[in-house]
Amino acid sequence: MTIKLYCFGESGNSYKAALALELSGLDWEPVFVDFFKGAARSADYLEQVNNMGEVPVLVDGDIRLSQSGAIQQYISDKSGKFAGSDADKYEVLRWVLWDNHKLSSQAGMTRFLMNFLPEDKRPQEVIGFMLGRLKGAYTTLNAHLEGRDWIVGDGLTNADISCCGYLLYPEPFGFDRAEWPNIDRWLKNIEQLDGWKHPYDLMPGHPSDRA
Amino acid sequence: MTIKLYCFGESGNSYKAALALELSGLDWEPVFVDFFKGAARSADYLEQVNNMGEVPVLVDGDIRLSQSGAIQQYISDKSGKFAGSDADKYEVLRWVLWDNHKLSSQAGMTRFLMNFLPEDKRPQEVIGFMLGRLKGAYTTLNAHLEGRDWIVGDGLTNADISCCGYLLYPEPFGFDRAEWPNIDRWLKNIEQLDGWKHPYDLMPGHPSDRA
């Protein structure tokens, strides 16, 4: 049975799930959620897909999961990929949580505020504050990647898939790859993986759709 | 060997780890990190405990772990507790991630800004924005707990331990138990657990130490 992923192109959290599915070799298809038109808050979506209005959501037969990190774990369990070695399992989980806690949650929100809100509604003090916190996260990740090709161990794991979720998008949110050489090198490693696709090539939905 | 937890009383993320250790029955002891005096950024701490300056950190023999969610998983694996049923494992992980992503990360920061920064340095627009986002998280959790005693299944899991991390603290951060009856009832279930302790009774460090 084909796995369905409710997602949209602009969503870095969706991208984590979509990239894991694509690279895992599992049979999957995206189902477009027109998030910017409120589709994730529609009565149908809340009733039939996710009662918290979350995106992404993975549906595989009777399994229905939200939160990209939980979806990634499910894909790992099903495909046998991206979990890292058994000795590294806590380290992988630690970086997935760090990402959810310190990087993606803030990058996603900041990118939304800076790009997807009308210009006159962008809270500048909030954006400035978030840019400062994000700089701390980039500093941490860049330092960790010194001398490393991957975040944990010697190959792609869920730690990489989680942390790269927002960093490959072109819209500004205070992240410039050229300023962070280790992050840049690591992102190139990801981009060179067999079967890798950019978020906007992997999922339906693009900012130009709303132009 | 006694497990050591580097922690401090004001830290809700530390509390998640400390509460899991205390309720697990494992042998543990807190090691006070004088966070507000910069101890987590000291050269010794960065070199010997955690090179990212994170708190909490669990040390168990050769095992050294940061990120409360990863520590909780380790405690579950070691003690056999709080993981929920096998069928519920993704649901537990989903709520731990939701908490890290939507609840604790924002509650912790907002509580810090509202209480632990000097009054003249509190960014009011940021605080107001965060209070709005937190209200969304409380709404989600309160709705989920309608008719439920625990977040997942019929007993305490890491989902509960994660989500309660900041909600038992007295300092204001826009959360008033009286406004959220299902959350209030669920917190009472936690407080009535055999061996439960309040954060300030479980870990060294209290705001009055700095008065």
UniProtKB/TrEMBL annotation, chains A, B:
The gene is yfcG_4. Belongs to the GST superfamily. It comes from the Bacteria. This is Disulfide-bond oxidoreductase YfcG. Its EC number is 1.8.4.-. GO terms for molecular function: oxidoreductase activity. Residues 85-211 form the GST C-terminal domain. It comes from Thalassovita mediterranea. It is an enzyme of class 1 (oxidoreductase). Residues 1-83 form the GST N-terminal domain. Keywords: Oxidoreductase. PROSITE patterns: GST_CTER, GST_NTER.
